[in-house]
Every structure is written in structure tokens, then in C-alpha cells.
Amino acid sequence: MAAEFDTLAEWTAQVATDLGSSFKIPAACRGSGSLAVLDWLIDELHLSHGGSLLDCGAGMGGPAAYAVRQRSVRPLLVEPERGACRAARSLFGHPVVRASALALPVGDDSFDAAWSLGVLCTVPDQLALLTELRRVVRPTGRIGLLVFVARSSEPFPHPDGNHFPTEARLLSLVEKAGLGIEDWRGTEEMAGPTPEWQSRVEKVTAELADRHRGQRAWQLAERQSQLIGQLLADSTVTGELLTLRRR
Ligand SMILES: C[S@@+](CC[C@H](N)C(=O)[O-])C[C@H]1O[C@@H](n2cnc3c(N)ncnc32)[C@H](O)[C@@H]1O
């Protein structure tokens, strides 16, 4: 996990900076692979100009930067990996705090909205993550999640550090956290990346491979990403978007 979200993040930021500013957001969106997903969340969370948004497990900060571009939100990025924090700061300059979702370093009821994209399944204590999100968002605010869900409870080969909940488990976690589901959408129903976005992602990926394929961190991250790609391709795991509110 550290290879993917720490070392590789700094390498990715360097590549995106070298390629030019139009590469930064596509390079820095690691969980949410398409703008249709982010546009849906931005609408469903009612993000408004000047509103505050907590991005929990923000990675390199691409999704938050896109939300700033679309709605001029005021983001705070929370991310535990040092390399990803540095990458997010250097790419976009938004405020970043190095911390875990399990103990968010912010006060109760302090954000208009929060999202956590592709993070829940990387965290063993998933109830703690949801409980923390509930704590920090104002009572009327909304929480957005992108979760990779296991379609069956049968065991399957997991990429290191991933804990994909089943749908039943996710529903039970949401309930236990005192949250209610406002909307739920499968990412498969949404438009995929545009050709322009896809070509930028591919250019970044190819450049990263050219620069770093001999290094262990690149090889580990590549193996991880291929395994997740395979699980999604054969629908062992699916991407699910949820919007939540306090019950
Ligand atoms: C698949 S990436 C998604 C990054 C970003 N949300 C995006 O969509 O581009 C998962 C992120 O979760 C972060 N993460 C892992 N454990 C975490 C924790 N306990 N608290 C917060 N973030 C965590 C990882 O460091 C990584 O940046």
C-alpha cells in the first residue's frame, strides 16, 4: 500500500508537473476514474460555492481539485501517506493534513460536506471511518463514498491491504454509524472517462513506467493495480457510489 500511495504519488506528481497542467487532475484521481463520478457526487452532495469540503483519504488531491474547479469549494485534504500529502500540496496547493480517517483532526460539525473515495476498503476499521465522517459533517450536510464492494462473501485473492465489504456488510456499517442512505449508484451505470481524460492518464502511466519500471515500488504498485483491475473486470468487485446523511 505504501508503495502505491506514498512513493508512487511523488513520482506521479513529478510526471504530471513535467507534462503540463492539464495532466494534473487526471494523474491525481486514483479512486475515482471518471469525471461523471465526481460530477454526480458534486451534485448529490449539493456542493456550493464557498462551502467547506473534507476529502478523507485524499491521495494526491485530484478529486478535491476538481471540486474546487467546478464549485469553488474550500477543501481540506486528510491523507496518511507522506508522499501523497507532498504530491497533493505540490500539484494543487490546497490545505493538506497528514492524519488517518480513524481520528480526523477536526472539530465536530465543522464541514458542509465530506467525501471519501476508494478509501473505506483500504481501512480495517470501517465503522470508525464512517463514525468519524458523521461526527465532522454538520447535521444537515452530506457524505459521499466511493466503495469497492465484493459481490459475494466467498473468499477471493485480495490485493494487499484491501478489505472489500459485501453489500450487506456495507448496509450494516452505514446503519451502525447512525447514517442513512440518500442515494446509491453503481459506477458501471455512469459514463466512463472521456477519450481526452483516458489519453492523459495513459500518458502519465507510460511516462511513470519509462522512468521507474526498474524500481520495486513501481513493480508493487503495478501488481496491485493489475489485481484490482482484474477484480473489477470480472465483477468480483464493483464500484458503488453512496450519498449519506445523519439519521
Ligand atoms: C485508492 S486511493 C484513493 C485516493 C483518492 N481518494 C482518490 O480518489 O484519488 C486510497 C487512499 O486512501 C488512503 N488511506 C489508506 N488508509 C487510510 C486511513 N486510515 N485514513 C485515511 N486515508 C487512508 C491511502 O493512503 C490512499 O491515498
TrEMBL record:
Keywords: Methyltransferase, Transferase. The keyword Cytoplasm does not apply. GO terms for molecular function: S-adenosylmethionine-dependent methyltransferase activity. Residues 54-143 form the Methyltransferase type domain. GO terms for biological process: methylation. Gene3D superfamilies: Vaccinia Virus protein VP39. This is Class I SAM-dependent methyltransferase. The lineage of its organism: Bacteria, Bacillati, Actinomycetota, Actinomycetes, Mycobacteriales.
